[in-house]
C-alpha cells in the first residue's frame, strides 16, 4: 500500500510537470487566469478535483 502512494505521487509530479515543460507560455496563462479567480471559484475547482479523484480511486480500487 505505501508503494502505491509513492507511485501515485510520482505520477502526479510527472503529470503536473508536463504542461510547463511542453508549453511554458500556456502554463503562465493558466496561472494568470487562476490569479483572476475569486477564492470561491478556486475552492470549487479544488473540491471538484478532489471529488473526481476520489470517485476515480473508488472505482479503480476494486
Automatic annotation (TrEMBL):
It holds the Pfam family DUF2065. This is DUF2065 domain-containing protein. The chain crosses the membrane at residues 44-61. The keyword Membrane applies. InterPro entries: DUF2065. Keywords: Membrane, Transmembrane, Transmembrane helix. It comes from Roseateles albus. It comes from the Bacteria.
